[in-house]
Specification:
Blueprint: E1 3-9, E2 11-12, E3 24-25, H1 28-50, E4 68-76, H2 84-97, E5 99-110, H3 117-125, E6 130-136, H4 140-146, H5 152-164, E7 170-176, H6 183-196, E8 200-205, H7 213-221, H8 228-244, E9 248-251, E10 254-256, H9 263-269, E11 274-277, E12 282-285, E13 288-292, H10 296-304, E14 310-315, H11 318-329, E15 336-337, H12 338-345, H13 349-362, E16 366-369, E17 372-375, H14 377-381, H15 383-387
Parallel strand pairs: 1-4, 1-11, 2-3, 4-5, 5-6, 6-7, 7-8
Antiparallel strand pairs: 8-10, 9-10, 12-13, 13-14, 15-17, 16-17
């Protein structure tokens, strides 16, 4: 499949109490320098990759006249803190450096409080055709607890404004298993999401990293996370309710109306290839994986002086590529064709993993359908237990006959 292009924008107007992404508070002067550096990296990568000499890619890869891409994803951070003219520059850089298809999915992540009708219309004019709004909850007290600076009314208004600006593809994020959250409160947010009629929704379990401010607030206020069984109820109820409302679950945490799956994110789960630009961005291309330096100022300075921005790089073995594709492919509700994947990477998949997968199959967590392996809905709740089969396996590869 064509490439996906990921552009990282690390700036935020405030830091959420739970967040552990690569981000920092907005600095206007640094933002201007960063956008120029990001544009320079994109344009330079297109040239060097076509020549087969990019820093992260083996020389002599043989790419033909141009590299095709059909998705551009501007993530963060809060990318909607960029001016529309800055977003237009970055989209144009992608179109210049790569053969971006005319029907490309071009996504911009946005926080509800950062957008206005005029700003959304300008993003649309800049080439963005999909907007992903970080709503997280439709309950004001939960939003405050998470450190979000919008309220539920602003979230609803942002969806309406995106529609009015011409966005026919709108995605919303919600978080479940919040401190002190009851099942019926989660259901309230899901019902509110359905009322706004997004084309796509991502529903995540809250993950608290060790030094998260929210963890400290929980200790002070005596809040606790709901029991695991309640998290399971929240998840299962939400997926069933969304199906009733016309959404199809296609990945552990994602649902969509027909034809509105995230084409960009599917590359991560379907053994695709992508190039990441900006601080901390990861790339996977031609069997090679690399990562840019994480610090915003360091990244910007390195690009400005023409220095190396790659901090990690490694070539993946065939078995590693198989393992990762099997692991991520199981996130999809359709599962992964282990037979076809094994033939691609020279692994006799079922012979190699049949014994390890047997307990999950017998427990009803997974189902084998011909050469395909997929998780049941109960299996999706316990996905890591099944997917762990493909982690850290260093046995010699078996060649497929």
């Amino acid at each position: 499949m064509p490439l996906g292009l990921y552009l990282h924008v690390p700036f935020c107007s405030s830091i959420c109490h739970y967040c552990n992404f690569n981000r920092g508070l907005l600095d206007e002067a640094l933002k201007r320098r960063y956008v120029a550096a990001l544009e320079r990296e994109i344009r330079g990568a297109g040239t060097s990759l076509r020549a087969g000499s990019a820093e992260g890619v083996p020389v002599g890869q043989g790419f033909g006249p141009g590299l095709q891409a059909d998705t551009v994803y501007v993530g963060g951070g809060t990318p909607s803190l960029l001016d529309p003219a800055e977003v237009a520059r970055l989209v144009a850089a992608c179109a210049t450096a790569f053969e971006v298809s005319s029907d490309a999915e071009i996504t911009l992540e946005a926080n509800p409080e950062t957008v206005t009708p005029a700003r959304l219309a300008e993003y649309r004019a800049a080439g963005v055709n999909r907007v992903s709004l970080g709503v997280q909850s439709f309950r004001d007290e939960e939003l405050k607890r998470l450190g979000r600076i919008h309220d539920a009314a602003r979230a609803r208004a942002a969806v309406a404004e995106a529609r009015a600006a011409g966005f026919g593809n709108v995605s919303l994020d919600l978080m479940m298993w919040l401190p002190g959250q009851r099942v019926e409160q989660w259901e309230e947010s899901v019902e509110a999401l359905i009322e706004t009629r997004p084309d796509h929704a991502s529903l995540y379990l809250l993950e608290l990293y060790p030094n998260a401010p929210l963890r400290e607030e929980m200790a002070r206020a005596g809040w606790s996370l709901p029991p695991d069984e309640e998290a399971a109820r929240m998840y299962e109820w939400a997926m069933e309710r969304l199906e009733e409302a016309g959404y199809a679950q296609y990945e552990i945490s994602n649902v969509a109306q027909p034809g509105r799956q995230s084409r960009h994110n599917l590359k991560y789960w379907s053994d695709g290839e992508w190039l990441g630009f900006g601080c901390g961005a990861h790339s996977t291309f031609g069997g090679v994986r690399w990562k840019n330096v994480s610090a915003t100022s360091d990244y910007t300075a390195r690009v400005e002086r023409g220095g190396s921005i790659v901090t990690e790089r490694r070539e993946l073995t065939s078995i590693e590529r198989f393992q990762e594709a099997a692991f991520t492919g199981l996130r999809l509700t359709e599962g992964v064709d282990l037979g076809a994947l094994g033939r691609r990477y020279g692994v006799d998949a079922w012979a190699r993993y049949r014994e390890d997968l047997a307990p999950s199959l017998q427990a009803g967590l997974a189902v084998r359908e011909g050469g395909r392996l997929r998780l049941t809905r109960r299996g999706l709740l316990l996905a890591n237990e099944v997917m762990a089969v493909f982690v850290g396996d260093v046995r010699p590869s078996s060649t497929v006959k």
